[in-house]
Amino acid sequence: MGLLDNFEKGLERAVNGAFAKTFRSGLQPVEITAALKREIDTKAAVVSRDRVLVPNQFRVRMSPADHARMSGLGPALTDELVDLVQKHAASQRFQFAGGITIELVADEGLAEGLVQVDSRNVKGQVAWTPVLDIGGTRHPIIKGRTAIGRGSEADVTIDDSGASRRHAEVQWDGSRARVRDLGSTNGTQLNGVRITEAILEPDGVITIGRSRIVFRVLAQAASPATPAPRADPATERHDLGGFWGPAE
Predict the structure, then answer these.
(1) CA 180 to CA 189: how far, in whole Å?
(2) Helical residues (DSSP H) of the chain, grouped into ranges
(3) Burial 36-59 (b: 16+ CB within 10 A, else e)
(4) For residues 65 and 73, what is the distance between their CA atoms, to the nearest angstrom?
(5) pTM summary value
(6) How does pLDDT run across 49-70, given as a tens digit for each residue?
């Protein structure tokens, strides 16, 4: 399955049926992904034999009407776009100088349905942001232990009768993740296999009852006050399955 197909499935989770009606005309979200992909491919610069650098900051310009529709999705759309940019760069073995920033901007000079992408390469720290994607809603997880269940004492609450009050937990140390069942009644699965405790890699799928929970790690730009928990992904080999295209 191609990257755009993956994005469309992710977007389908992020947009409810009523809101999807707003995309019957004008700019389509998938057209933004195609424009970002073209911008990355066009601006790729060969620095050395093993290093091809691509932009990491993007301004996506569109008509005010299109911008109003896209903004209605909130951060879910931007998160999906960052995720797609990461995956496309990894598939091409491209590298970034810093974290990824994508800004959606209204441009009076663009007609409805058109999109323009401006980009630049900005060196900086990376904030690795782990999230749990549940039915299109993304829940940031904190360093330490994040409990999932249907009870109010869980850090992430799911409305699922098949889940225990504290069903499972995700452990995150700033660079690696694990998932652990908390003695639940119906058990916990990871990628279709029942587990007690296991390493959790990006795009790993945790199943609790009828709930499908996807673990993602987004490489976002760190704010000046936010220390980066890991080094530049262009120079460091990562332990999470080589997800970000580590240098050889």
Answers:
(1) 10
(2) 3-14, 17-20, 29-43, 64-71, 75-92
(3) bbebbeeeeeeeeeeebbbbbbbe
(4) 14
(5) 0.57
(6) 778 999 999 999 999 999 999 9
